[in-house]
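Notebook, p. 212. Picked up where the previous page left off. The plan for this session was modest: take the two constructs that came back from the sequencing core last week, fold each one, and keep the raw output in the notebook itself so nobody has to go hunting through shared drives later. Recording the first one now, exactly as returned: residue sequence, then the structure token string.
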Amino acid sequence: MKINFLQKIDNRIGKEGMTLIMSNIVEMVNIKGGVRR
């Protein structure tokens, strides 16, 4: 869905920054999931 957006971020920040962003997204999703449950 947001593949182009992620690719642009990957080009600017690099793989290390990408992993940090992905981990932050995962944490946010887990928090939202926990609140809903």
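Okay, moving on. Second construct, recorded in the same format:
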Amino acid sequence: MPRLAAFPKAYMQALCKDGSMTLSQWFDLAETLDIDGLEFYAGFLEMRDESNWPGFRRQVEDRGMVIPMLCCSPDFTHPDRSFRESEIEKQKGWIRMTHALGGRYCRVLSGQRRPELSTTEGVRLAAESIQSCLPFAAEHDVTLILENHYKDDFWEYPEFAQKIDVFCDLVAAIDDPNFGVNYDPSNAFLAGDDPLELLRRVSDRVVTMHASDRYLLEGTLEDLRREEGGSVGYAKRLSHGEIGKGLNDYDAIFSELHSKGFDGWISIEDGVEGIDQLRRSVLFLRRKIAEHFPPAGFEDA
């Protein structure tokens, strides 16, 4: 049965920019939720000191949770080989961080969608860079998870593999037991794509998932796809919302994942309005997981 983790979406400024919240304070909040783990971010201020890593792992485990995943953002589509090699070394450092935290999954991205970059060249550069990291990942018992992403906060351009066809081409280019997909249904909306179509095309490669939800402030999905699909900057028609109250069809999503035998981690990227919203999202997901992933021996009862 899938397990639930949480990502501190509402507290990123405090944990990564101004230091107004400590990780221990986030752990205390998260302990009040019905979750199994915490997704970490490589940019947490307190993670800059490597000597802190084992202590944070102990703190989380002492609260009855684990750290299954690490979120990070390599840029593998830069035309300069030395830049890409530097990003590969960064990714290896994040793999080491994942291992030190007791995690099994470390995110990778393709890189930025630079205007001069052709689809063929971008897929090649990203695939080669990810493949260069895979032996190191295997040595540390870590699986690299490629997310259908939108855009890193510090990037000039959106994700190269943002659109469904490019993402699927990149996934198909990498066949390795230490590589899989981190599926994010909400990001498909930002790309102007159908989240369920994307899932059906890659569901046999999905090993982890980001759970969130979006809702339309105005207009229709067709308006979104026509006017803002794949554009630079967040889609103005879409806003974060409580999971289960937005555009994502979690019954269809979980049904497809169950059909492929999915039993990985689902990390909640929600709670932008605070811990109470996050708690409601956890309750919704627990209910849906129970409906679609019954315990072994109960499916035919």
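Notes on construct two before I forget. The chain has a mean pLDDT of 93.
Flagging for discussion at group meeting.
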